Amino acid sequence: MAKAFTRIGERRYLSRPWKSAIYPGRGGNGFSLTELLIVLSVGMVAAAMAMMAFENAARSVRLSEAGADYANLLQTARVRAVQDDKYYSVLMTISSTAPPTAFVDIAGTGTYGTGDPRIVFPEGVTNMAFASGPALANLESQFLPPGANSLITINTTTAGPTFGPRGLPCSPTPGAAGSVTCPSTTPTSYITFIQNQENTQWEAITVTPAGRVREWTYDNYGAWSPRN
């Protein structure tokens, strides 16, 4: 396109009449307001997606850490039971004003006492009722020994997993004169479900009749996978 000159006095100025025709919304060198708004919108959407991914990852980490802490607490109860030649239960406390906790009931009173080994669950993570656990058959088939008789070993009635002096899981049984025994001769296993209620992810901590403690994660599609 030919260049156009305009005479003003004795000076000549170069004008560009085609500039406004091709870029009507842009003045000088830079971006139009529309372009800036588009870039800003894309950036905000990307930031929101990154924040959601970060929050979901943080929730998953809190759930896995809670599962690991609870599994370690079970191991602590098992070791103390062997050392002290007693049986110890791992119990939960639920409060509307404080995070859930789990502790080894050393004194056997059913309540937390000073010095009891204890963990505090992270924000959003809590233990769930046995009946609410998903894909129970899939989990049982993986952690229990083969055979139909292994299913009857799962204790679903006690307040929490209990270990006897041999380091094996057992079921506390009322005896004479108010006494309680925990015979290890009866094969016993336990399943504890925990969930992050902010993203509904599940984990399970299991104890086999032989005393092996394992952690499991749920894929939300009907299958459990071992973490250890």
- What is the H-and-E element order? EEHHEEEEHEEEEEEE
Radius of gyration: 32 Å
Oligomer: single chain
Query: Average pLDDT, to the nearest integer?
Result: 84
User: How is the biggest beta sheet arranged?
Assistant: 5 strands, antiparallel
Range of strand content: 15-25%
- Low-pLDDT sequence parts: none
CATH topology: minor pseudopilin epsh fold
Structural class: alpha+beta
Which word captures the global form? elongated
Give the N-terminus to C-terminus distance in angstroms.
74 Å
How much helix, percentage-wise, in residues?
Answer: 25-40%
**What is the CATH architecture annotation?**
3-Layer(bab) Sandwich
CATH superfamily: minor pseudopilin epsh domain
Q: How many separate domains make up the residues?
A: 1
The strands making up the biggest β-sheet line up spatially as 6-10-11-12-13
Q: State the name of the first-level CATH class.
A: Alpha Beta
Number of helical segments? 3
Q: Could you give the count of β-strands?
A: 13
